[in-house]
Amino acid sequence: MENLKTYKGFSLLELIVSLLVLCIIAGIVIGRYPFSIIKKRRVYTTAHRIESDLRYARNLAITNYSSYTFRLYNTDANPDTYEEYKIYESNENFPVKYVTSDDFPSTVICTVQGPSYATFSYAGIPSASVSISLNTDNTTYTVELNDIGGIRIY
Question: How confident is the model at residue 52 (pLDDT cuts 50, 70, 90)?
C-alpha cells in the first residue's frame, strides 16, 4: 500500500481558499470599472438605432412606392422628452416597426428640435427636417434628417 503523502495535487481546502482570493480580487476590479462607459455606449447604440430606422423608413418608401412616417412619441409627464417611436405606412393604422419605451434605455434622454415626425415620400424625400438629440451625463449624439433625406449622426 502506497503512502498518501506521495500523491501530488491540491487539497479541497487549498482550492477553496484560492477561489475565495480570486473572487475578492474580481470584486475589487469590477467595483472600479467606469460605468459611465456603459452609459455612453447606450447613447451611441440608441443614436445608431434611430439612424438605421430612419433609413429603413426612407427605403420602405422608395421600395414600395408609398409614403412612410417615422414618428416619436412621449409617454411620460414631460412633453419635451420622447421614449418610443413607430414607423408606419401613411395610409395604414398599424406600425411596420414599433420601438416601445421598454426597448428605449431609461438613462437616455431624447429631445427633438423641429417636428416629432417625418413622412417620407415615394422618392425618399422627408416632409420636414428633424433633429433628434440623445444624451446622458456628458455624452450627446444628434441624429439629423435634412430636407433632401440625408441622415447623419454627430
Answer: very high
Q: Is the distance from CB of 53 to CB of 61 less than 8 angstroms?
A: no
- CA gyration radius, the chain: 26
For the chain, how many structural domains are there in total? 1
Q: What is the pLDDT of residue 22?
A: 95
Assign residue 97 the CATH number of its domain: 3.55.40.10
Smallest CA-to-CA distance from 112 within 77, 139, 145, 76 is with 145
Q: Identity (one letter) of the amino acid at 98?
A: Y
For the stretch 13-36, pLDDT in tens is: 999 999 999 999 988 887 777 777
β-strand 117-120 against 139-145: which pairing, if any?
unpaired
Q: What is the DSSP string of 81-147?
A: ---EEEEEETT-SS-SEEE-TTTS-TT-EEEEES-SEEEE-TTS-BSS-EEEEEEETTEEEEEEE-T
